[in-house]
Queue: 3 jobs
Job 1
Amino acid sequence: MRAIDEDKLMAFVGQVVGDFGAMATAPLVLLGEELGLYRAMADGDPVDAAELAARTDTDERYVREWLCAQAASGYVAYDGNGRFHLEPEQAVAFTDESSPACVLGGFEAFLAMTKVQPRLVDAFRTGNGIGWGEQDVGLFHGTARFFRPGYEANLVSAWLPSLDGVVEVLAEGGHVADIGCGFGHSTMIMATAFPASRFHGFDAHGPSIDAAGKWAAGAGLANRVQFDVATAKTFAGDDYDLITYFDCLHDMGDPVGALQHARSALDPAGTVMLVEPFAADDVGDNINPVGRLFYAASTMVCTPASKSEEVGRALGAQAGEARTRVVAREAGFSRFRRASATPFNLVYELRP
Ligand SMILES: C[S@@+](CC[C@H](N)C(=O)[O-])C[C@H]1O[C@@H](n2cnc3c(N)ncnc32)[C@H](O)[C@@H]1O
């Protein structure tokens, strides 16, 4: 029997109690968003439960309990005397979808991915995969929502300019394919910034492509952006100036086959932009809060998705630069470089 240090044990359990609190609070964040509770507090004025319930047409007793749970989480501020308010930073995080600090999509996506747990038990035993489309429907909307603010903040201002000569081509009028585009937010952000170019989003998941088409119509982009269901190894076209992958290459079973197809569909002077989750090459350097999130998502979603497709290479969300470079080399790309990075993403430039 190994000796137990009681102080260390209590400190560890205390840490996990914090994790229990995060798990228990996640559904209440989504509830608060759906019922407009955060939005009704966005002005920062202190409210009590009765006032918030009246503003949102909800039940006072439930709202009081929700407010206390939110305050104990540090998600709203408690003023004493039963009154609560949202600090400006909390208001941004819970109500401003345009901000990269908005956390709503993260709650939606991470809560949705936990629903796969019963199936994952079987997958661990058999080694079988679970396709992206087999996950809880909340994951599709939540993922798109989670990633979009980061794309809004970085794609046009930093990531595209970090690629050699790409902005000039797109400004003049280029042809772009966005592979594994999901709801197509990345495609539409590029299309909005570069009206002279043509954009084509592809994804293997039909419901996501349907959603992308609706978003494009709503944004008035339907005439310049086309969305079609296609896999990364079968998408159409052969003259692309730019082919992009946003947070999806590692989800694919055959990333080498996918990049080989991209190489054949690229103009000889064209570029591939790979946006992948931030990761160091050494596991020890990913043992941190961002690595925690990405490894968990990778266990529940990315690794099963890749194992469900042919080859099943299962790169994982924390593939890192060295392993991604190997994939690009195997696919025949002669140039590979890290072009840009944020705390959450690595951006690579590949040239034939
Ligand atoms: C994590 S989501 C990212 C979606 C989108 N790029 C974004 O950033 O919001 C991964 C996407 O890859 C797509 N995908 C997975 N395997 C694919 C394949 N072999 N061909 C095309 N799309 C694929 C999934 O359907 C899913 O939409």
Job 2
Amino acid sequence: MRVTGTGHASMRIDTAAGSILCDPWVNPAYFASWFPFPDNSLLDWETLGRVDYLYVSHLHRDHFDAKHLREFVSKDATVLLPEFPTSEMEDELRALGFTKFLRAPNEQVVELDGGLKIMIQALTSPTDGPIGDSSLWVEYDGVRLLNQNDARPTDLTVFAELGHVHAHLLQFSGAIWYPMVYELPQAAKTAFGKQKRERQFDRTWRYIDDLKADHVFPIAGPPCFLDDVLWQFNDIHGDEGNIFPDQSVFLSEYAKVGGTNGIVLLPGSVAEVTTSGATTTHPQPVEEFFANKTAHLEEMRERKRGVIEAEKASWRHPEIDVLAGMKRRIEPLLDESIYLAKGVGGPVRFDLVGYDGAEVESIVVDFPGKQVRPYADEKVRYRFRTERALIEHLLHIDEVDWVNSLFLSCRFSAARIGQYNEFVYAFFKCLSTERLQYAEGWYDEHERAVDAEDVTLGDWVVQRRCPHLKADLTRFGIVEGDQLTCQLHGWKFDLPSGRCLTSVGHKIRAARTPTP
Ligand code: FES
């Protein structure tokens, strides 16, 4: 089995029974904030795009690049489609010209022509990607590969049960706006970023240990930030709180925990994976590339300046009345929302900075009051500050997912009172009736689900499943004193009170073990 690195989470898998192109991403995403790192735009995409199968793991724009799919990927390719709750991905791909779809039943092995086998695991909670993320397992001639991508299943048992895996490709770096955009003192930001960076690595080691594959390939990040206003997010400034470590940092951190089977793929690297080993060739020596990372980014920044400027010029729509537009889009959804609105529980304020960089329009999405209105000098739960032009653009293109556009762009700052509130972001990624209804139904089901089983962890009897996304706490729970940490996403719980210390809601059932 041949695996060609094509940048970020993208790869092309070639076997004698057919080829699969995964997640090709080349054009900047999220308001021109993210670019693939290392640069993959100079690859021979005409050739790479001539494939038998296309697999897009989810709709995040660093995985689903509509422009690139339209221009470079063969429309004869059969799309391997995860079993997602909505038809959005299929609809978007059809609009791009794809006509052949294979809907892979969730977690079931499908045999394709010539003995090529695949299995797709779709994750479908409202917090997984844009309502859905997925992983692809491939087997040909005894060689097994898992492209876990940036999916976060509670464990990898379903793949491990299919036999020993030879190549495991997974995310290790950050892909979020926390903590950089928060209006916090620099020392606090650094401390939170450091914790986050460590947690990302811990999670990666756990997945690697779960599967024990022969070879581990760090993929799906980090992106690079080429706009001058975002340049500081690149991990080239010696900031220990930077959440975007690169593949070379992965190798050195992995070595510290005894990992010796890591393989970095640069765009254009080719790994030939067999049941007995892997040989990899690179377009240039990997160490040499990372030693010159800053120069690579600076050169790329100059080359892409025009692309960023052209994108920026398309965002302004002065004819749009933002308050009226937000009212029209959001108020009907506030009316429909029960769980998400209750979960947010308070007003969320948007401060929109005008074209002159000075004038600010303050708009409140009032979740309890179910309306969008001008800010009325009140206490708010969250406050976001961003350019008015970005919201104009979102309204202009009728964007239903403001996480997959505004928030991932990192082109905003945020402040909040109290804990992180997942419902805020869940709501703003569900700005369509279809998505909102799905998310409401999901929370409804999970609130009702009786989670009766308890387990003993140290001096505590706690519910077995994590109140966040149901991870098995016998595997992921660590009790230190009176605090439990679920290592899957790092959420913490105060055991005496049951209170979740990471997010609003999500109480855990816990009691001290009875003394004999
Ligand atoms: S499942 Fe996410 S922290 Fe436990």
Job 3
Amino acid sequence: MATAIAMDSEAFKAAVRNQWDTSARSWNDHTPRIRAWLRSGTDAMLDMAGVRPGAHVLDVAAGAGDQTLDIAQRVGPRGRVLATDLSPAILEIAKGNALRAGLRNVETRVADGERLGLDGASFDAAICRLGLMFFPDPAQGLCEMHRVLKPGAGICTMVFAGPETNPCITTLMSTALRHAGVPPRDPYQPGGLLSLGKPGLIDELFKRAGFKDVATTRVDAPFRLPSARDYMEFIRSSASPVQQILGRLDASAANAAWAEMEERLKRFDTATGWEGPNELLLTAARR
Ligand SMILES: C[S@@+](CC[C@H](N)C(=O)[O-])C[C@H]1O[C@@H](n2cnc3c(N)ncnc32)[C@H](O)[C@@H]1O
């Protein structure tokens, strides 16, 4: 049984790696929009983790490195940031982005966040922006971050809150599942977009990993775009679980599902564009 679970989790991670390798370029192309969407949440996350000049910072599931570059600027030339990610392709883009920005204090390492393979007690701070919810075993990911942080070091993670406050995600998922003929899923199923949004769950996982002073802050983060179509373009070109679900349909059936999602998301049209509600959880603690 334990082996079967372990094998499932390895197969799941291989699929996640493959999806992000494939979507790496388009995720990076959307950086200006992602950056605007997550601006205030990212600043708060770096403050809460204690990212300051001279610090050695770990960025887990760094993706194309948008927040890595912010960290590199904050820690300055006397500090360093190590960007880690499961996907070699997206991390290669992060490396290129850092070089182009002239930031020489960024290192990269391909690593599963559940098994970082780094020395213990070696970082002053750690962050993970919209990555931890993809881990099949987030408790193990938090134990790894705890292990590699120095005593007293800070951590802050950003994940999606629950289904009630993330109606765009629930609309995408429910429409995709219905078109694929799959029964509704538990939104808190491990590895899903909303998996860590269950009330109290993330604090509990932090405490079990050994962190002190654990506190979660809810952050309202509406995604403002010109239209619902722009949001759909973002979703279609990123490695979302929706892609996986619709991957089993032929092109015309999948297109019908995408069209219905767009139609349903138009309820968030405003006088000046489109505003999709999103709520995030920032969980901060100390080792
Ligand atoms: C939504 S993107 C976020 C990227 C970046 N942190 C940002 O906010 O722009 C999620 C990232 O998590 C990474 N990821 C998923 N599962 C992972 C795991 N088990 N270990 C490390 N990275 C993982 C993916 O490869 C992807 O780059």
